[in-house]
Amino acid sequence: MKKTLTIAGSDTTGGAGLQADLKTFQEYGTFGMTAITSIVTMDIDNNWSHDIDTIEPDLVKKQLNTIFSAGNPSALKTGMLGDIRTISVVKEVLTQHQPKNIVIDPVLACKGTAGILLSENAETIQTQLLPLADITTPNLIEAGILSGLGELKTMSDIEKAAVIIHGFGAKHVVIKGGRRFDDQEAIDVFYDGQTFQYLKSPIIHTNNNHGAGCTFAAAITAGLANGLTTFEAVQTAKTFVHQAIQSGETFNAYLGHIWHGAYRDNGNHLI
Fold it and tell me: What CATH number has the domain bearing residue 120?
């Protein structure tokens, strides 16, 4: 059985973060493990504002030491890491154990609020984690921050950002453009250091998309663990997330979750 690891925050609603990762790992037939870096809660009495309580870096390191005592996972991903101290701990442990198939999801913003931005982590992610990445999966905001280009307004901007981010050491980059550039298709851009490839799917007009980004990175992770090439893993993840959004459900007045079992429900097989 392939083992997969997520180093990420906990989303109390169950839709994103490590909860989304574990559900995705299970759907792919891998054995998921977690190192918790933070706990995200939401205030129903304050317009669903988000609070992030970080786990002390020493405790994150203890979790990682426990996991790696059983050997290296087949693939792993990082998500919300909290602060630069935790990023440094993760880099230290990954450098020590040299696992393969590292997916860096450079979470710099917590969806649902513009008030909690973790952009101060960007430089540390650039210098400490991207050189270890087999692939990194920023969204448009994160790609703009990491590349230093700011707001990405065109596909040309996305391509420029991908080249810059690749230059930090990531072997592959996929930037999630989503529905921001086309009202018919959701477009993501994949770059391997030489060529660009574009992944497209019909836009689903719904607000039930909470956890889509985490799930996309987790699906890539599990695909790599199962032996897919990087581009094959991205292609499969794109389809997996598209179907999960199609089958999403409303959670409350503020958000709706995607359904991680949709790919299987639709008769597809991942293992």
Answer: 3.40.1190.20
